[in-house]
Amino acid sequence: xxxxxxxxxxxxxxxxxxxxxxxxxxxxxxxxxxxxxxxxxxxxxxxxxxxxxxxxxxxxxxxxxxxxxxxxxxxxxxxxxxxxxxxxxxxxxxxxxxxxxxxxxxxxxxxxxxxxxxxxxxxxxxxxxxxxxxxxxxxxxxxxxxxxxxxxxxxxxxxxxxxxxxxxxxxxxxxxxxxxxxxxxxxxx
Length: 189
Ligand code: 5GP
Fold this sequence. Notes:
single chain, alpha/beta, 5-stranded parallel beta sheet, 7 helices, globular
């Protein structure tokens, strides 16, 4: 592989996607976003092939059986997410560094798999109360989904110490800047 691997994980609602969108086109970082496949339906303004490749549950499992994924997880009961081998190739072929937005189990697995070629960063909310406020403000999810995501957040936060670096998203501008400088230091090492 030509590029390096950057793993970003965080509980849902922590601002991870916003951070990625702020740093993705920084020319100094040479990042390419790893578009995952998922069996969930598109949310809000999401576009197939941009945020995710949206596929059915059946197709997801067919492709998993054929070994098409570098890693995949059933992140929520009945809903799978995974990184396609073809996607890693697509992004890194010309030397771009692959940035992956993946769940905590996938993050720890990918870090173990790529070792020093990968950098794992965990984004933390300032507090669980603040996370709940942000999830409620998002308005794209129903109450049941919000409660499910909050319950999961506590479990996910337990994985933070297993990441190379931890960044608190207390202010989006500051946090995005910190993530960018951590990545810059890593790729220039
Ligand atoms: P969401 O439905 O909010 O977009 O994402 C739910 C969770 O799935 C997030 O924690 C996200 O990081 C994770 N996720 C997205 N793509 C992948 C992937 O390819 N592999 C794994 N293991 N998790 C993923």
